[in-house]
Design goal:
- It is a single chain.
- The protein has 2 domains: about 60 residues, no CATH class; about 40 residues.
- About 65% of the residues lie in helices and about 0% in strands.
- It starts with a helix and ends in a 13-residue tail after the last helix.
């Protein structure tokens, strides 16, 4: 929340819109709580399911050996996260350049000679 509050000023400047976070809206807090719970359940389910496949007796005796996988889930997730980071950086650059172009381009008419009704 602190990072979002600090970044909202720069984003407002970038888009030329006044943005704010609705701290007084109960729907905002409900959505935030739902997002936190959903993320916690998803983040906690993988380790829980992975650890539940082990036999407790063999782990406690020390005779437990894990199989070495050439392609593990961890490696796939790291590559997936890296690809997402690259895509987000490219999208941010494209959006910034589009907003900059739209602000600087010629509108095609003289703004000084407009008749207002």
């Amino acid at each position: 929340m602190l990072i979002a509050q600090l970044a909202i000023g720069g984003f407002s400047w970038l888009t030329w819109k006044e943005l704010s976070i609705p701290y007084d809206n109960p729907r905002f807090w409900l959505a935030l709580l739902g997002f936190i719970l959903f993320t916690g359940i998803i983040a906690g389910s993988y380790p829980a399911f992975y650890l539940s496949t082990f036999q407790p007796i063999s782990v406690l005796k020390g005779s437990f050996k894990t199989g070495y996988n050439l392609v593990s889930v961890r490696k796939i997730l790291v590559v997936f996260q890296f690809c997402f980071a690259i895509v987000f950086i490219i999208c941010t650059t494209v959006i910034y350049r589009q907003i900059s172009y739209a602000g600087k381009r010629d509108p095609g008419y003289n703004r000084d000679h407009l008749a207002f009704a």
